[in-house]
Amino acid sequence: MSSRAAGSWSPVLIVSLVAAGTVLSLSMGLRQSLGLFMDPMVRGTGISVAAFGLAMALQNLAWGIGQPFMGALCDRYGGRLVVIVASLLFCAGLYLVGIGSALGLYLGGGLMIGLAVAGTSHGVLVGIVSRLAAPAVRAAAVSILAAVGSLGTFVLAPTAQAMIELWSWQGALGGLAALALCMAAVAFAFRGGAPDGGEGATGEKPDARGAIREALADQAFVVTTVSFFACGFQLIFIATHLPKYISICGLPPSVSAQAIALIGICNAVGTLVAGYVCQRWGNKNVLALIYLLRTASVAFFFALPVSAETALVFAAAMGFLWLSVVPPVSGLINSRFGAANFGTLFGVMFLTHQLGAFLGAWLGGLTYQWSGSYSTAWISLIVVGALAAMLQFMADDETPRRTQAA
Predict the structure, then answer these.
(1) pLDDT for 191 beyond 80
(2) In sequence order, which residues have a C-beta less than 8 Å from that of residue 392 and are 6 or more positions away?
(3) What whole-number distance in Å separates Cα of residue 85 and Cα of residue 119?
């Protein structure tokens, strides 16, 4: 690292990176542990698998619709207020899920947690870090944030399973709600008020409408946005239904918890690797390769007999590719449009991701309810992933749009 790049790691950036990583780690860990509650809720309340899947689908839809607005608010006013309000929503949503009614599940686990994740995930937190980081270290800072953000899943998934077994599923949700409140305390490490751009800032002011118009006229942005559908479709089906699939294959709940934890720890490694190779192969090529490798992993897992070994190997492979899309996607937005409107543009792109997530969670539960099998869902994951990889490979080159205009 050059002396100039080393000097770009200012104390403000480092403190904000640690805080953002903590919030992201808690948010992703809490959200991805919710699939562990499907079986005990179905047994204890009579809520169906399809109803649980619909609630998780609504959560992802609310996350997607809320993300552009949360991102725009962060761009304009800073991240502290957004994260504090979102953490309170997260806590209240978990409480409503614990009531055990279908309405509480849809309202709390669906709408409220969806909006909460929109305010405590990549669209907001990567934007905070991108504005503070100089261009020389921006890609590295984003990769570190995305990698650290996955560690919460490694810790919280087995912790949630242990709480379910030690207390009850309602008591475990109460414990997770207390952890959600910790995000509000961590948010005070962010600067208050509107972002000032930080070190390496371009001096641009946020302009959400202008940025959206510019992005929608850009071929690379549009293709990446459409392909992002497959990412949500595949990942949220797995996060929601993999524990149930493992259960119906005769494996104990501990295997599900281990699989989710393995996704978290492998994700940290995969995200750092993705950030490294993006600088050599280009963002669109890395994205296409990620979609291709994910689809191949799904195809092999579906074709092989399910055992504890194959489930954990599949979880490790998917974990390596889980959030590895964040460095290339954020790199494409930052390089073509700058960091001033990152939250807004990431939110627009992320909306298609969450439309895919909605269908992945909902249709997965629906097909199981109708047929008693997840086979149709697994085949759908393979088809959608292959189409996304093909589309991303054909995307435009990555010359910054503003450089083209100049």
Answers:
(1) no
(2) 223, 224, 227, 284, 287, 288, 291
(3) 8
Residue 33 three-state SS: coil
Cα–chain center distance at 195? 24
Three-state secondary-structure class, residue 27 = helix
Residues contacting 63, CB < 8 A, separation 6+:
114, 115, 117, 118, 121, 354, 357
Question: Which CATH superfamily groups domain 11-192+208-398?
Answer: MFS general substrate transporter like domains (1.20.1250.20)
Could you give the CA distance from residue 352 to residue 32 in angstroms, rounded to a whole number?
19
pTM of the model: 0.77
Per-residue pLDDT tens over the stretch 24-73? 999 988 988 898 898 899 888 888 888 888 898 889 889 989 998 998 88
CB 38 within 8 A of CB 49: yes
DSSP codes of every residue in 192-206: PSS----TT---PPP
Alpha-carbon span 207 to 341, nearest angstrom: 7
CA distance 216 to 205: 19
Give the pLDDT of residue 333.
87
Q: Residue-wise over 360-387: b if at least 16 C-beta within 10 A, else e?
A: bbbbbbbbbeeeeebeebbebbbebbbb
Supply the DSSP string of 268-303, one letter for each residue.
HHHHHHHHHHHHHH-HHHHHHHHHHHHHHHHHHHHH
Domain locations along the chain: 11-192+208-398
Q: What is the mean pLDDT of residues 277-281?
A: 84
Asked if residue 33 lies in contact with residue 160, where contact means CB atoms within 8 angstroms, the answer is yes
Distance CA(206)–CA(221), nearest Å, equals 19
Residues recorded for the chain: 406
